[in-house]
UniProtKB/TrEMBL annotation:
InterPro entries: Calcineurin-like_PHP, DNA_Repair-Maintenance_Comp, Metallo-depent_PP-like, Mre11_N
Annotated transmembrane regions: none
GO MF, one example: hydrolase activity
Top-level taxon in the UniProt lineage: Archaea
Coiled coil: none
Organism for this UniProt entry: Methanoculleus bourgensis (strain ATCC 43281 / DSM 3045 / OCM 15 / MS2) (Methanogenium bourgense)
Keyword Hydrolase: yes
Protein name, entry field: Metallophosphoesterase
Length: 377
């Protein structure tokens, strides 16, 4: 029987620019989560730890961040730790793995430099698939050998990439049936920041959320495998400090605003919550509702760790006929805004705004419609 901790996508050194003035705190929280992983590994008495890629955001991460990461990994000793280079921190000459700051790592940490079998014990073998570049259309797990007859060891693959279960082109595509093809008892994956269990192919997700689009992130996994061919038993363990929540409410009346207020309050204390609220007010004609919404916005801004408020989320569309903006300067401005939203550069003075955030342009266009008294579809 083996018990190990599976984590990935620490992304140490990420800029977190989308968190504005809170970016420095967001970066610090990643070290806090990593420290909790150390405590959890000791509490759960794991045999080893797998870090399945993207330990660092890129090769330009500062030495201070690398040293702090090394210090945390060294605290895991003597428990073995297996670290895989991912697509953000691939195994390249002169990269982050060649830094003097990384070379302070203790012997219990093994950097999985080669595509090969790493023997953890007589009963457990790891098959590492390190990445040596940022992008590829090749399956990094394709060279994992099949299980030979009579091989009763627990076989664990360690890889970084995207299971080919998506309709779109993916970077480092991994065969969804790789565990079956190669006779793996578990395929420890990194790359997807959302937790996902696809049979024996498993993503733990990032240990500290990084965006509003992630689902079930902020965890690590404790995995137990009784013997070869046995079903892995997976325990999900939260380690995150911050919670990222996106809400897209439709606002037409004051009651809608009160419902949004209750939704936010149900989140609990907001001091550790990053909120992205994108109210759809395209159908709102009630000035009281808009005023209450603005008050709520200020209330949330006072209490939330971070608030990104996007208003509105739907592009206004001119209906035509009597609802059309009359010819003149407002019509010309509206045409320029519509051109920018269509991904083109308008002629005339409007071209200087072509590089503005589409959400800003969208909000400006809806406000213009209200100013002109035009209904938006």
């Amino acid at each position: 029987m083996v018990r190990f901790l599976h984590t990935a996508d620490w992304q140490i050194g990420m800029k977190a620019a989308h968190a504005g003035e809170k970016a420095k705190v967001v970066r610090q929280k990643r070290f806090d989560a990593a420290s909790r992983i150390v405590e959890l590994a000791e509490e759960k008495d794991v045999d080893f730890v797998i870090l399945a890629g993207d330990t660092f955001e890129d090769h330009n991460v500062g030495d201070v961040a690398v040293k702090r990461t090394v210090d945390i990994l060294n605290r895991l000793g003597p428990t073995p730790v297996y670290v895989l280079p991912g697509n953000h921190d691939p195994m390249v000459p002169g990269g982050i793995w060649d830094r003097d700051s990384w070379k302070r790592i203790d012997p219990h940490v093994t950097l999985l430099r080669e595509q090969q079998e790493y023997r953890h014990s007589d009963d457990v073998a790891l098959y590492a698939c390190p990445l040596a570049q940022k992008q590829s259309s090749l399956d990094p797990t394709a060279r994992i050998p099949r299980r030979e007859d009579g091989d009763n060891r627990i076989r664990i693959g360690v890889a970084h990439g995207s299971l080919n279960i998506l309709p779109d082109h993916v970077n480092f595509p991994i065969a969804a049936d790789r565990p079956e093809q190669s006779g793996l008892d578990y395929l420890a994956l990194g790359d997807w920041h959302s937790r996902g269990i696809y049979g024996r192919a498993v993503y733990p997700g990032t240990m500290e959320p990084t965006s509003f689009s992630e689902k079930d992130s902020g965890n690590v996994l404790i995995v137990e495998i009784e013997e070869a061919h046995a079903e892995p038993q997976i325990e999900v363990c939260p380690v995150n400090s911050l919670t990222w929540v996106g809400i897209t409410p439709e606002i037409s009346t004051v009651d809608d605003v009160e419902m949004l207020d209750r939704t936010i309050r149900d989140l609990g204390p907001l001091a550790s919550v990053l909120l992205k609220i994108s109210p759809d007010i395209s159908g709102c004609t009630d000035s009281r509702a808009l005023q209450r919404l603005e008050t709520l916005r200020e209330e949330v801004r006072e209490s939330a760790f971070f608030l990104e408020w996007i208003d509105p989320v739907h592009q206004p569309v001119i209906s035509g006929g009597a609802d059309r903006i009359p010819d003149g300067i407002l019509y010309e401005v509206d045409e320029a805004l519509a051109t920018i939203l269509d991904g083109r550069i308008p002629e005339g003075p409007g071209h200087q705004f072509a590089d503005q955030d589409p959400e800003v342009v969208l909000a400006a266009r809806l406000l213009l419609h209200r100013l002109a008294g035009v209904r938006s579809a």
